[in-house]
Amino acid sequence: MNQRITQLLGIEYPIIQAGMVWVSGWKLASAVSNAGGLGIIGAGSMYPNVLREHIQQYKAATSKPFGVNLPLLYPDIEQHIAIMIEEKVPVVFTSAGNPGTWTSKLKAHGIKVIHVVSSSKFAQKAEQAGCDAVVAEGFEAGGHNGREETTTMVLIPLVKAAVKIPVIAAGGIATGRQMLAAMVLGADGVQIGSRFVCTHEASAHPDFKHAIIQAKEGDTLLQMKKTVPVRLLKNAFAEQVREAELRGADAAELNQLLGRGRAKKGMFEGDMEQGELEIGQVSAMMQSIQPAAAVVQEIWNDFQSALNDPLHSLV
Predict the structure, then answer these.
(1) Which of these, 173, 144, 99, 86, lies nearest to 263 by C-alpha position?
(2) Integer-rounded Cα radius of gyration of the chain
(3) Three-state DSSP class for residue 213
(4) Can you give the pTM of this predicted structure?
């Protein structure tokens, strides 16, 4: 099996837990890393002092490698960068911005940098900026997404052909068989978000977790394309956004409708009607809330089973 990602990150399995806002604290990250994957702390919903606390709590829980996900549009980014350097974070996953801005500084301090992209064009820019790998995230993914609406099955081979650095597939992956499909298409590993929301260690509100496992096909929708596209679980707020978009609301009106703290209100505080509920299409496949370690092992076992399936020889 391809070892590029496991060797790059010093992990057992090429399974990376996405750094999701209001969901991915030190408890989830350490549980995933202890199970053999790479846990990621999601800094996008953390003040600088909170990020430092989560990094230190993680280090107290395990000595395994980990990462921090940092949206490059974050207002306190200089403080976040300084903290990650001071705390010797092994790998930083950047997103939502120009990777050329901070990659060289992070790498100068021995930090590996992996950038999240939604197109082969941006993958090439990440490679030119010196990133060690890219996460190619397809249209199926939850949370913030690409405007191009390119699906993972189309995106992975395009990105693989465009760059020489390792490619991590994301979007629409929740099982080992889906992981194998991504790797057959050229991925060196996978990043999984939605499946890890439904774990005991995730800091998402219990009502949000239960709403996810009740979700069916078609219960998510990519919205806010005039601002920053985001895939949401349908609820009263999502319907307000849909109606506004249908009548041609501009970016300013959509941003006013979104307001401040909408994601915290939904995913962390549990307002299932007026909160922003970011989740991927694979929510329709999830049926229970499990320990994070069990999720990692189930995905890996399913991957091995699919890999050894005689039908795989037809691929």
Answers:
(1) 144
(2) 18
(3) helix
(4) 0.94
Q: How far is CA 297 from CA 31, 116, 237, 291, in A?
A: 12, 25, 36, 10
11: left (phi over 0), alpha (psi -120 to 50) or beta: beta
Domains of the chain: 4-203+285-314 (3.20.20.70), 206-282 (no CATH)
pLDDT tens for residues 18-49? Answer: 999 999 999 999 999 999 999 999 998 899 99
Q: Write the pLDDT tens digit of every residue in 220-230.
A: 999 988 888 89
Residue with tokens 């970016």: 251
Sign of the alpha-carbon torsion through 265, 15, 140, 166: positive
Give the chain's residues under pLDDT 50.
314-315
Residue 273 carries which DSSP code? T
> With contact defined as beta carbons under 8 Å apart, do 8 and 31 qualify?
no
